[in-house]
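In the design runs reported in the main text, the only information available to the sequence generator was the tokenized backbone. The following block is the verbatim input for one such run; it is reproduced so that readers can re-run the procedure and compare outputs position by position.
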């Protein structure tokens, strides 16, 4: 008992002992649902109580909840947090916006119009000279309109992604979940849950 207290792991896991279940085995358990999952645990580990014993937790008391024990479980099994994907840069969003078929057609048409405006016309073709000199305006106008559309679309997507990440971060840090640690009910953020926590799941909640 004294060694457990010095070690900081409490009664959850004695010093110099390993868990009876690793991460890969826990993933296999999560692949089974409802009765299939229950039957798998019964067959593989001999029941839920035996699985708890492998994880050094109690169905009634939960884990000790000491800082050392929590850190040890996170180090062994990982944290209950989904790593966020790296955010897209504004230039990446601009590139994605340009991939629109309609915009590509307009860009090609603008380039063709610009190319024809600089093509010298012979006297036999006729036409107003002022009109030929101002022919480049149409192509530039199309490119200008396309640029505005692309920038506005990219800016809106950037704002939406920023808001989504802010909402996701808020949910991860503010959403509380009820667990049993040291025989007491505690509400903790979902991201602070660890393997071995006895969770009191309510309808509609997501761990």
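Verbatim output:
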């Amino acid at each position: 008992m004294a060694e457990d207290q010095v070690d900081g792991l409490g009664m959850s896991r004695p010093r110099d002992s390993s868990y009876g279940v690793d991460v890969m085995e826990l993933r296999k358990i999560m692949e089974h649902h409802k009765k299939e999952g229950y039957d798998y645990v019964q067959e593989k580990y001999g029941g839920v109580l035996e699985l708890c014993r492998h994880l050094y937790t109690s169905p009634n008391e939960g884990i000790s909840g000491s800082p050392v024990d929590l850190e040890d479980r996170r180090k062994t099994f990982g944290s209950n947090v989904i790593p966020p994907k790296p955010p897209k840069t504004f230039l990446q969003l601009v590139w994605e916006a340009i991939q629109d078929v309609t915009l590509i057609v307009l860009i090609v048409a603008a380039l063709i119009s610009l190319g024809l405006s600089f093509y010298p016309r012979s006297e036999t073709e006729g036409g107003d000279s002022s009109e030929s000199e101002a022919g480049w305006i149409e192509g530039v106008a199309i490119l200008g309109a396309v640029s505005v559309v692309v920038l506005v679309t990219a800016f809106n997507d950037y704002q939406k992604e920023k808001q989504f990440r802010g909402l996701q971060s808020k949910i991860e840090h503010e959403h509380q979940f009820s667990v049993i640690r040291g025989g007491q009910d505690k509400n903790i953020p979902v991201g602070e849950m660890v393997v071995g926590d006895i969770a009191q799941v309510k309808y509609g909640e997501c761990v």
